[in-house]
Amino acid sequence: MKIKFFPLLLLSLGLILFITPAGHSQTIPKAKLPVLTTSAGQSPDVTTVNIILEEAGIGYDYCDVPTVEILAAGVGLGGRESGTGFHAEAHTDLTRFPKGTPYKTVIFAIGASLKGMGASGLTVEAEEARLKKLLEYCQANKIFTIGVHIGGESKRGAAGSDNERMIEVVAPNVNYLIVTKDGNKDGRFTDIARKKNIPLTEVDYALDVVEIFKKVFE
Question: What pTM was computed for the model?
């Protein structure tokens, strides 16, 4: 009995560890370029996401408040340039993806900043509405979406807070979630991922996402 039981026990434990490491799935899905990055809440966290992409050697375009029309314009953001309350940067490799090439992936950096929203002329409600339209467009046009929450505990709050509202809009409606452990202490992202069947990767530090992005876009 002992000889038979031990292998079965090991197999059971192995399945548990494979299916639920750290309490959730660590499956890393694949996404395609070109990619657009944007903010969900206008916090500086999107700058960190852009730096992470640069460290991973991945070209990207960035716009803090893209509309559906800007997203639909593809690589180069339709020639939009930065101005008051609007920032646009084009870092996509044009030799691989000429201007106008449709984006295949959009990365949302989740984290609210009233100062950031104010500088862009947005209220929390207006930001929620903008994000919903972008997510709906991505879903309708089969654009892969990634929600990244790397602001940690400082970008969380009580139910109904600005940060939590950004999470509520974005997290349940993306194809993949990447979060830091200290931003998921209450397991909220784990719960969302389980309910919506969304792959979730939890990392210790923001810079750990460099290797994650390399695997996502390899």
Answer: 0.86
